[in-house]
Amino acid sequence: MGRNKPIWVTGFMSGTSLDGVDAACLLTDGVDISEFGPSAYRPYSAAERQILQSVLGSWPGEPGLEPVAVLILKAHLELCSQLPPGELIGFHGQTLSHDPQNFRTHQLGSGAQLAQQAGVAVAWDFRSEDVARGGQGAPLAPIFHWALARYKQMQEPVAILNLGGVGNLTWVDARLPPEQGLLAFDTGPANAPLNDYMLKTTGQPYDAGGALAASGRVDQTIVASFLQHPYFTRAAPKSLDRDSFGDLAGLVAQLDPADAAATLTAMSVAAVAAGAALMPVTPKQMWISGGGRKNSEIMRQLALNLPMEVIDIDDIGLDGDMIEAQAFAYLAARVARGLPTSFPATTATKAPLCGGKISLPETKL
Predict the structure, then answer these.
(1) Is 147 domain-assigned?
(2) How many structural domains compose the chain?
(3) Does residue 142 sit within a domain?
(4) Do the domain assignments include residue 127?
(5) DSSP structural state of residue 100
(6) What is the pLDDT of residue 2?
(7) Cα–Cα dist 57/234, whole Å
(8) Is residue 50 part of a domain?
(9) Which residues, 6 or more positions from 347, have their beta carbon under 8 angstroms from its beta carbon?
(10) Is 56 exposed, middle or buried (0-12, 13-18, 19+ CB in 10 A)?
(11) Which residues of the chain have pLDDT under 70?
(12) Biggest distance spanned by C-alpha atoms of the chain
């Protein structure tokens, strides 16, 4: 593959919300975005989500991982067959555990096996090197957010918020090089606690459109208690595991379902508001991506509680469902070129770092 010319890359993302796998094609040289290509989505069935949830918190070598790895590989290969072949794949795998304070992170899934079976080179294991060198290993999408702001020719800072299982916030000034124009961190729990509560209480995987939360009343005492968590006083950059905050659903267990959903939603928004205060300059806009933007109650509360215009990223011509998959396509191109994928102000690594490794189809397993 050419080292400096744009190439077509397919990026995959299976996030902490455990809803399924996103795949997106991107034409890029690892610096600029030339073209957005087709995308696809492979949902996990209820049974598959249960299998994935059963191994959350696991580390390599623990029992029960092999059938889950088979499921992850199968889902990604199914998506490969739905998209035009590219020169490179960016494979994130499924995060099961993330503990950067103890220099470890675990994304289940073998890029070497995917390369062998898909017949395409695969860039993968994006987080391990960053964590091994004392970084947080997350978030990794900020350098792609910088590219998005360049693509949209932004002449002032902007914030980009991804609301998946965990919330990730990037402050970006694309007029500056990434070493100077980025600050990024996880804001706190986003969809994961609400989704877990909904599945356990109602049998539904999420609060569709935020309808249940909108019908309830927020317990402000619980939200205030949540904001006392020491994570919110830590300086950025910083990152979270999906379950870093423990059982938030337990805090609302005594509330009726509508009030519980409203309170869990308010927690997610309060975490974003706390994070917004850490940005070096308050931007005029915050672009919202990820599944949380489809929750009208989350969007309403964000608009009420943030000091900037809140914009669904779809409304500026980008695909809010595929930002993270596109990000891992972009990161793969950067790995192929030896360009940094994380920075001191995004993961707290001591210097710009090119994480990830590349497996070729002919590599022997």
Answers:
(1) no
(2) 2
(3) no
(4) yes
(5) G
(6) 52
(7) 23
(8) yes
(9) 130, 135, 136, 137, 138, 139, 140, 184, 237, 239, 353
(10) middle
(11) 1-3, 363-365
(12) 59
pLDDT tens-digit readout, 190-199: 999 999 899 9
Q: Are residues 237 and 353 in the same domain?
A: no
Residue 186, domain extent: 153-316
- CA dihedral over 171, 175, 181, 184, signed as positive or negative: positive
- Helix (H) / strand (E) element for 331: namely helix 323-337
* 341 and 227 in a common domain: no
Is 171 exposed, middle or buried, given 0-12, 13-18 or 19+ CB atoms closer than 10 A? buried
**Same structural domain for residues 202 and 301?**
yes
Integer-rounded Cα radius of gyration of the chain: 19
Please identify which residue in the block is written with the tokens 């970006």: 172
pLDDT for res 247: 80
Instruction: Decide: 253 and 129 in contact? Cβ < 8 Å.
Output: no
CATH number at residue 46: 3.30.420.40
Whether residues 345 and 286 fall in one domain = no
Would you state the structure tokens that stand for residue 207, as one six-digit string? 């609060």
Closest CA to 177 of 208, 149, 137: 149
